[in-house]
Design a protein that fits this description.
Blueprint lengths: L13 H18 L1 E5 H17 L5 H11 L2 H14 L8 E8 L6 E7 L4 H14 L4 H6 L1 H65 L1
Antiparallel strand pairs: 1-3, 2-3
Helix pairs in contact: 1-2, 1-4, 3-4
Length: 210
């Protein structure tokens, strides 16, 4: 019976359990997600999240404290250089546990534990949901009196713009008609001058015939 047990012993002695959790914490820090049983994942979450919180303060003392748990200098460097800047604004809850069903061999409940800030798929969906929530409906605009007064003015401006655009083609059409009439008048004026030499040539031909 689990009387007065503060945590899950995982069926191991203290030294074995500490070594296993340190090894799993190093794997989680280096690979950002690992697959394990649900009981081990819950124990790992209690083990690694205080270390991530300590990594927010990048000092020699905090590095030595984290190294005393992990026993891996590469994991310590990864934690303080890469992970701590990403989780700087997050007040806890650095890991997420996703259940994967039961293992075929012994029917153990499996799960995947990962760092929250490294799941790009879920971060993308959250950003899209935030973008959709900022949109406002029409009801909010109707409630404000100033907005209701501004909409007719905007509509009048749009109608005025459309009338001006409609008038521009009409004006251009009248201008083209005027230009064509002026060209026709010029042709009429030049035509008699061209006909006069033709008449003189005809008279000269008739005189020669006579």
């Amino acid at each position: 019976m689990r009387h007065r047990k503060g945590f899950n012993h995982l069926g191991r002695k203290s030294a074995h359990r500490q070594a296993m959790l340190a090894n799993m914490a190093v794997s989680l820090i280096m690979h950002k997600r690992i697959t394990t049983t649900l009981a081990k994942a819950k124990a790992l979450r209690m083990y690694v999240e205080p270390l991530i919180t300590r990594s927010k303060e990048d000092t020699t003392h905090s590095r030595r404290v984290v190294f005393s748990y992990l026993k891996n200098k590469y994991a310590v460097a990864e934690l303080f250089r890469e992970i701590s800047p990403k989780v700087a604004d997050r007040p806890g809850g650095y890991t997420r546990i996703l259940k994967l069903g039961h293992r075929p061999g012994d029917n153990a409940e499996m799960c995947m534990i990962e760092l929250v800030d490294y799941n790009e798929a879920m971060l993308g969906t959250k950003e899209e949901s935030k973008g959709k929530s900022t949109r406002r409906g029409r009801r909010g605009r109707r409630k404000s009196g100033g907005a209701a007064q501004e909409t007719p003015a905007a509509e009048t401006k749009q109608t005025a713009g459309t009338t001006e655009e409609e008038q521009q083609p009409e004006a251009s059409a009248t201008e083209t008609v005027k230009e064509t009439s002026v060209q026709e008048e010029e042709k009429k004026e030049t035509s008699p001058a061209k006909e006069a030499p033709k008449a003189e040539k005809k008279e000269e031909k008739e005189e020669k015939k006579d």
